[in-house]
Amino acid sequence: MAQTRIGTDAIVASSVAQAQDWLGRHYPGITIEADGGEPRLEIQIDYLDGMAVHTLATDTPLCLRLPCQHDGYLLYTQADGQLSLATEQDGLRPLPACTTVADARRVTAWGFGPGRYEAILIDAASVHGRLSQSIERPVTHRVKFAPPEGSVPSGVRFAGELVRAAGRYSKADGGPRAIAPDIVQSLQDAVIFAMLKEIPHNYSVYLARRHAGPSPRHVRRAIEYIHANARAALGLADIALAARVSIRTLQAGFARFKGFTPMGYVKRVRLEGVHADLRTAGAEQSIADIARRWGFSHLGQFARDYRMAFGETPSQTRRGD
Q: What is the second-level CATH architecture of the domain 1-201?
C-alpha cells in the first residue's frame, strides 16, 4: 500500500536573521520585523499531506510579511498572545482571542505579540472539495468565516488534538514516519468538517439544511441546471423540465433534501452571485446594475434579502468591511 510521508521541521532562533533564513526555506521571500530587539523564537511546522501545523512562540512582538499569499485557510487553535493580520486593503489589525479562521489568500502580514500560537494551514482545494461533497453543489465563492464568539468550539479543540497527536507520531523514533494515505485523509477530513460545522460561514445554511443521505438524481439535475442558468429568467416549470420530473416531485425533493423550495434555492444562488461580483467589480458598475444582472428587479427587497443572507449590506461587501 502506498504511504504518505508526514514529518516535522523546527528551530529555536535567537535572531531575526536566523529565523528568517529558516522560514525562507518554507516560504521564500518572507521577512520578519521584530519590535524591541532580537527575539527568541521557537517555530515548528508539522506536515501532514494537505495540511501544515504551525507552532510559534516569541518573547518579542513580531511582524511576518509574505511576498505571496497561500491558497488556503488558516485555523488558529491556540493564541496566547495578541494576534493581528494585514490585508492589501488594511494594515495590521488585532483579532479576537478565541478561534479564528483566516483566508490565507488575503493575508499579506501577520503580527504576533509575546506568546504562543498554533495554527493549521489547509489547502483551499481540500476545504472546497469537502464542502462541495457535503452540500452537493459547487463551491463557487471563497468560504467567508464569521468572527468568532466565545470559547473555542469543542469539535475544533478535538480536531486540534488529533493534529497534535499526528505531529507527535511524526517525531517518534527520530521521524519522519510514513502513514497510509487514507488515514491522513481521514484526519484532514475531521479537521475540515469540524471547522465547517462549528464555525459559521457563508455556506452554513446549506450544511444546516442538508439531508443525511445523498440527493436523488432529479434534485442534482435541477441544481446543475440552476447554477448553469442562474442569470436567466427561470421558472419552476423550466427547472422541472430540466430535472425531468413533475413540479410536485421537484418541490418535494427540494423540501426533503435541501430544505429550500426550488425558487428559494434559485434566489440563494443569485444572491451569492451578486456577493461575488460586488467583491471584484470595478467602481463603474453600480450595485443596482449588478443586482439586476442577477435577476433582482425589486431593489428594496433585494437589499433586505442580501442582508439576511450575508449579515451585511451590499455597500459593506463592496467596501470589503
A: Sandwich (2.60)
